[in-house]
Amino acid sequence: MAERKARQLSRRWVVSAVTTSLAGIATAAFGATHGHHGDGAGPSPGPSHADPIPTTPAIDRLERARTRISAYVERYGGHLAVAALDRRGTAAVTVGARRFETASIVKVNILAALLLRQKPPGKALSSDTRRLAEAMITSSDNDAAVALWQRIEGSRGLTAANRALGLRETRPNSRWGLTTTTVADQLRLLTALTSPTGPLTPQDRDLIMGLMNRVIPEQRWGVTAARETGSRSASVKNGWDTVDVDGGRWLVNSIGRIVEARHDWLIAVLSDHHVSQEEGVRVVEKAATYVLKELRAVTGSDDLSQG
């Protein structure tokens, strides 16, 4: 991609310390706020003293896990953010409030916006539009993305769709790959794409998740590295690009869903400032694997994963 808007590389890092509602699914996300990284969009700070969080061994274990995850992320000096939640329980974490450029993960957002414009809701896409949607998601085809971006009226259409999807921190750009977002907003998007209480019809949700399940093998890296042997399914969309204002270094992003016997994970990892795409992929996969390993460990012997 051509020239970029300058980024603000200094943002506050936050581990969510309140019960967060993501498109109708409440997930407990306790942790600590780290205020030395600049201004603060993202999850709200911890609860007031008038409304203390009840202390239980299970919550204590989750909080310790989130503290370890926060320390892991902060080693990357503001160039990594992660968020994950279990749709079947209360295990959740969000670390990083900074906005990153989306690159191609915005293609999932574009498809959701397109489906929200269908009249009546749930109406099947035309064969031509369906072909473009498949190419845009399964092989990250940029020409298909351009065509569908125009059909949703670009930034204006994405902004309108994001209001319906519950996104709060995503800023569309006229050049779709330069749209900026946060990991918290990517969880909101994934939740809207999987929740029966969201704005999309069951047919639309099945279409998007089905295409993310069919991403070509060469692009099935990223958060899928965190799946366990025997996982029922793994849906993914990745984004990668060089950043002119960062000396040509790479940004690498990955969002997706991993369904296991006891968990239904939604996960987003955003990152930049990598010397190569390969290095970025390695960082993203290690982060996703670490986060789910920590959350599985603290929920493995409790009923926390039961929704």
Question: What does this protein structure show overall?
Answer:
The chain has 307 residues and is α+β, with helices and mostly antiparallel strands. The chain has one domain: Beta-lactamase (3-Layer(aba) Sandwich). 35% of the residues lie in helices and 19% in strands. The protein has eight helices and eleven strands. It has helices at residues 57-74, 106-116, 127-138, 142-151, 154-165, 183-192, 202-213, 277-299, and strands at 13-14, 18-22, 25-29, 33-34, 80-86, 92-95, 100-101, 180-181, 233-243, 249-259, 264-271. It has a five-stranded antiparallel β-sheet, sandwiched between helices. Strand 10 and strand 11 (264-271) form a beta hairpin. Helix 1 runs antiparallel to helix 8, helix 2 (106-116) runs parallel beside helix 4 (142-151) and helix 3 crosses helix 7 (202-213). It starts with 12 loop residues before the first strand and ends in an 8-residue tail after the last helix. The model is unreliable at 1-55 and 301-307 (pLDDT under 50).
Number of strand segments: 11
The CATH topology assignment is Beta-lactamase
CATH superfamily: DD-peptidase/beta-lactamase superfamily
Give the N-to-C terminal Cα separation: 42 Å
Give the overall average pLDDT. Answer: 83
Shape: globular
- With strands numbered from the N-terminus, the spatial order across the biggest sheet is 6-5-11-10-9
Q: Give the helix level as a range of percent.
A: 25-40%
What string gives the helices and strands in order? EEEEHEEEHHHHEHHEEEH
Instruction: Provide the domain count.
Output: 1
**Percent of residues in beta strands?**
15-25%
What about the largest sheet?
5 strands, antiparallel
Please identify the structural class as seen in this structure.
alpha+beta
Identify the CATH class: Alpha Beta
Report the total helices: 8
The radius of gyration over CA amounts to 18 Å
**In terms of quaternary structure, what is this?**
single chain
